Amino acid sequence: MTKFRYLGINECLENLIKVVEIVIEPITINLSESLDMIAYNNIVSPIDIPPYDRSAVDGYAICGEATTSASPNNPIPLVIKHGSNKISCNEAAPISTGDRLPLGADAVIMFEDTYTDGTKNIVYVMRSVPKYANVSRVGEDIRRGDTIVEKGRLIRPWHIAAMAAIGLSKIRVYRKIRVGVVTIGSELRDGGIEIYSEGGIIDITSKLIVASLQEYRFIEPKWYGIVEDDEDKIASLIRRAVSEDDIVITTGGTGPSNRDLTFNALSLLEKDMRINVISRGVAMRPGRPTTIATINGKPLFMLSGFPVAAYIALRVLVIPFIARFLDIKGIEPIEVPATLTKRIAGSVGYDVFARIKAYRCGDSMCAEPMAIHGSGVLKTLLSSNAILRIDRNLEGFDRGEKVWIQLL
Amino acid sequence: MTKFRYLGINECLENLIKVVEIVIEPITINLSESLDMIAYNNIVSPIDIPPYDRSAVDGYAICGEATTSASPNNPIPLVIKHGSNKISCNEAAPISTGDRLPLGADAVIMFEDTYTDGTKNIVYVMRSVPKYANVSRVGEDIRRGDTIVEKGRLIRPWHIAAMAAIGLSKIRVYRKIRVGVVTIGSELRDGGIEIYSEGGIIDITSKLIVASLQEYRFIEPKWYGIVEDDEDKIASLIRRAVSEDDIVITTGGTGPSNRDLTFNALSLLEKDMRINVISRGVAMRPGRPTTIATINGKPLFMLSGFPVAAYIALRVLVIPFIARFLDIKGIEPIEVPATLTKRIAGSVGYDVFARIKAYRCGDSMCAEPMAIHGSGVLKTLLSSNAILRIDRNLEGFDRGEKVWIQLL
Q: What is the value of ipTM here, to two decimals?
């Protein structure tokens, strides 16, 4: 059994990226189905938007300079010209929001700043409007050649609007990333509370993992069920998951004890698969016994059976691996500044992830570290709303210190 | 035509909630499909979790007091007892993580703090462990009677894990809220860039609205297409949407001009439907011409055709209406403190929503207001990542002032 050696998080990710061999192909989908998917290429505008100067209001298209001296006491009369794409400076053309300005016009006056006499042929302008007033200029929104969505960008609603504006109805995105999740543990069961009276334990960690993956719409998680503490059976289920998915996560069966079955199961696969152990243990708390390997070039993350430890490992290893591998922009955790309400100790040599209750206090955010009773305590996840990372070369943070917390 | 009167956002929402008559029924779904849905009732734990004291590590279950004087120099011998659910204080029972403690045991010592002699019948304890060391106490995670998910709570991954822990496999949530979206405007088209050379405009606002609604998995948006500037046709499409959906949104055809067709279309429906105008105009910028009504008790939000104005109205009127109506907890915008990099003017009498570029600067966040060239400018949405609300009784904020911004 390889000895544990706690590699730093960043080193793990770098080493994994170097050897991984998966391919996430592009697919073409309807723009209307692209929310929260990952753009496969840069999307560059072939046109200016607006494509021409257009009116931003309902009113009359005019020459701005014709109104220089206009006021309610000195209304300027202009001849109303209908249905022409050209005016001269003594004319005014009725125009609707979004319409192209006729030639000769360079500004729009709103209806409410004008009045007409009985003849309906003359409009009186009561206000001076400068050149380009109430006009959306050509290219004001998007310039021809602008990159409106970068390769790797998480597609949000405004990207969809911008892509629609340049006439796209289908786009290329990465297909969904298939992540298999395997639960390991003879004591674990899927079902109701009768399990407890039978001496079993309900498998909740795989549900936390699967739901956390579901939060990313570009990931397609698949749960393979529970496998008992039997190296052959573990190996066989991992083999199946590796053949079907891009990434495999196991939960449970880890730890520096004689029960570290998941790791042992790897050696059973070595006969006919290429196994590459990236890290046996990661310098993080919780999540220290995490093992990372590749099987035939596909990443295998062997996470703790404890829900909080597995969740943290998912956040700091699995998701960041995917983000780096596809160079995804826009899924970084939201970090906000906050003031610690009490001292919190780190653990030199390990990145520590502490659960935080963040709340508004005056004109800043306060961050209250939650009591930590081991990595299995679901209650802290239910009542926390943020995570604080204490770097592995820090002894901790003092009460009142300013820190950056990640919102959940 | 009813005159515009700009009612405050909060007043609009309160008045709407009072008269609205929609019912969002509960449905029973699998726990594994409940992510981001809204809990229909309080979910209370019928049991303690853990349901009994259990081991948090792999090791030997022992009496803590038997180890008081133990050290590497003074190992304490204990008799290994297999397969019994009871030990005495001179015994040690091998135990795995998650196993129930045998009667008589009150602590667990890890394997690595012990050694065994050749006989394999005696284990030597090299460390003193206090009572409850390495034990997960009964009820430590969740107590019987604890509310683990409140009615109206947006279901996140840890809620799913907690519900699984109390043995649930199906839960009741609100069914998806059906929101119909109708685009109004003869100049608008759905399609490619050839539309611009034909003098048309691509409808992007409905796409922004639909995608923004899709971000909430408990909402099911439906786009009804584009209807031309014809009051009969507008009325007929609104009628259809009202019959099929819980909430209807129109975009375009608004504004205090002679083209305010959407509002006029309402009077055509009055013959056989109950129309209740909640607010003709809202005291907000952008989004001032927004009209809110109910038709047969269903909310109708008549939003601007300008993408940014419509998006803001969606964020501050439509989503907050849904949140208040179902008393949803967990979808409030994330507000973070930031320092303004330049002065920004408000507009007394109107809540102003300014687009912000937020970024880290030193140990706080900086908020840079984006240039505002009217409500149609998509570019500000593409490059902004936050919104600042300037209350309608404020003249604005100074450079260097601390503000709360909402992250997008």
A: 0.93
Residue B142 lies in a domain: no
Do B229 and B356 reside in the same domain of the chain? no
Suggest the residue from B329, B378, B383, B387 to mutate for an interface test with chain A (most A CBs closer than 10 A): B378
CA distance A22 to A135: 51
Say whether B269 sits in a helix, a strand or coil. Answer: helix
The tokens describing A264, both together, are 């042992």
* Domain match, B165 and B40 both: yes
> Which B positions 198-257 lie with beta carbon below 8 A of chain A?
199, 201-205, 207-208, 210-212, 214-215, 223, 255-257
Do B129 and B188 lie in a common domain?
no
Nearest CA in chain A to B362: A337
Please indicate, yes or no, if residue B131 is contained in any of the structural domains.
Answer: yes
Say which CATH number the domain at B276 has: 3.40.980.10
Together in a domain, A179 and A319: yes
pLDDT in tens, chain B (408 residues): 456 778 999 999 999 999 999 999 999 999 999 999 999 999 999 999 989 998 988 899 999 999 999 999 999 999 999 988 899 999 999 998 778 999 999 999 999 899 998 777 999 999 999 999 999 899 988 999 999 999 999 999 999 999 999 999 999 999 999 999 999 988 899 999 999 888 788 999 999 999 999 999 999 999 999 999 899 999 999 999 999 999 999 998 765 444 678 888 999 999 999 999 999 999 999 999 899 999 999 999 999 998 999 999 999 999 999 999 999 999 999 899 999 999 999 999 999 999 999 999 998 999 999 876 555 567 778 889 999 999 999 999 999 999 999 999
CA angle at B298 for the pair B292 and B302, rounded to the nearest 5°: 30
The number of distinct structural domains making up chain A is: 4
Q: A241 and A183, same structural domain?
A: yes
d(CA B12, CA B302): 13
Task: Read off the pTM.
Answer: 0.93
Q: Is B29 on the interface with A (CB under 8 A)?
A: no
Same domain assignment for residues B203 and B275 = yes
On whether residue B1 sits in a domain, the answer given is: no
Phi, psi at residue B67, to the nearest 5°?
-105, 5
- For B100, residues 6+ apart whose C-beta sits below 8 A from its C-beta are A199, B52, B53, B54, B85
Contact criterion met (CB < 8 Å) for A199 and B100: yes
* Phi then psi dihedrals of residue A112, to 5 deg: -70, -10
Note down the domain range covering B289.
9-24+176-325
